[in-house]
Design brief:
The chain is globular and about 65 Å long. The longest helix is centred in the last third of the chain and has 33 residues. By secondary structure, the chain is of the alpha/beta class. About 4% of the residues have low confidence.
Length: 372
């Protein structure tokens, strides 16, 4: 059964789409079957992967008679069609084998209000009972079709009903961050909203009406894999002073505000799994303090990944539909020292994404063996 991982932060501009694509590619390079899902109505992931330039490109896909995107996949439930939800015909990705895209649709936003009403009233209205479980059912059917190991979900920057549903019906979640004031404040907001979502999901899982639905609400307990802090400048091998301050603020906020709340709501894996994937060395070098009463929380708050900005690599990645660590010399189109420096950066990013993918594999494989 595929492991569904949501990449979520209600703050925009933190690199969720870039991270979904690059992490998915690295997991596929490591032999995993991966589906990346575009759940943002802006459809940036779809546009990047398929090389779409304008609305006409999207229209050609949306005009297909087959089920080729997320909105068409959900239509049987949300538009009361006399047919069951079926697996989406995913788009293959020109890269490692067994990596596919479940394309997005700008019209997914049209289902937001309907799903919101269903999630508030479906416990009492049988006519809405099929909607809360529809997204997970669609992903599961599609994952089964492609024998996927991982489903990575690129979410929009919002606190709306669709994101509430996506996160609470996932197996795991990652929180991408940008080192600035707004991400630091987002940590507090997440510490407030996630317990409310967890309480709603608990109630939904206990609802007889939702369990008797054609698409039952799944019994999931999403677990926090970690944060990803990215897109900061480097000075003399370390984060520039302005960014370093915000990186520490985010880590402290995660440790002191988010982790305790996640622990209270059973949204953490066992401490030993985090300790296994976060080294004591990184703990000592990246934190200014380690209070003995919070050693485990300090380790859990260490990011899965912490990486500087991609500079020109991000534009090249988007242009050539390739990850920042796997561009060819021809695609880079540079020479001499500039080419050498760019390739050096690519190798550093390859190493970082490899570490991140290894952590995800370890956390999800070992976590599955534990009953929680």
């Amino acid at each position: 059964m595929a492991k569904q991982i949501a990449l979520f932060n209600h703050k925009g501009g933190v690199g969720k789409t870039t991270m979904t694509f690059n992490l998915g590619w690295m997991l596929a390079e490591k032999g995993k079957r991966v589906i990346i899902v575009d759940c943002d109505p802006q459809c940036n992931l779809t546009g990047m992967v398929l090389g779409f330039k304008d609305a006409e490109d999207f229209a050609s896909m949306y005009g297909s008679d087959a089920v080729t995107n997320i909105r068409d996949g959900l239509a049987p439930a949300f538009e009361s069609r006399p047919a069951l939800i079926e697996a989406v015909d995913c788009a293959p990705i020109d890269g490692p084998p067994h990596m596919h895209l479940l394309p997005g649709h700008i019209g997914l936003a049209e289902y937001e209000v309907t799903l919101g009403v269903a999630q508030q009233l479906s416990g009492s209205l049988v006519t809405l009972q099929n909607l809360p479980g529809a997204l997970h059912y669609l992903f599961s059917k599609t994952a089964d079709k492609y024998n996927a190991d991982f489903v990575l979900v690129d979410m929009s920057p919002s606190l709306g009903p669709i994101n509430q549903n996506l996160l609470t019906t996932s197996d795991y979640f990652i929180v991408p961050m940008f080192p600035d004031y707004f991400s630091a404040m987002a940590t507090e907001s997440l510490a407030s909203i996630l317990p409310k979502w967890a309480a709603w999901a608990k109630q939904s899982k206990a609802s007889p009406i939702l369990q008797e639905a054609i698409y039952p609400f799944p019994d999931k307990r999403p677990k926090f894999l970690g944060t990803i802090i990215q897109n900061f400048r480097i000075r003399e091998g370390v984060a520039a002073k302005a960014f370093k301050g915000w990186i520490n603020e985010i880590k402290i906020g995660v440790q002191e505000k988010l982790i305790p709340v996640l622990r209270e709501n059973n949204m953490l894996l066992p401490d030993e799994l985090y300790i296994k994937t976060r080294t004591i060395e990184s703990q000592q070098t990246q934190f200014n303090f380690v209070h003995p009463d919070f050693v485990n929380d300090t380790i859990i708050s260490q990011p899965l990944l912490q990486m500087s900005d991609f500079n020109s690599l991000i534009a090249l990645s988007q242009k050539h539909k390739a990850p920042v660590f796997d561009l060819s010399d021809e695609q880079i189109d540079q020479q001499g020292v500039i080419l050498a420096n760019t390739k050096g950066s690519m190798e550093r990013f390859r190493d970082l994404f490899a570490v991140g993918a290894d952590q995800i594999i370890t956390l999800t494989e070992d976590g599955r063996a534990i009953q929680f």
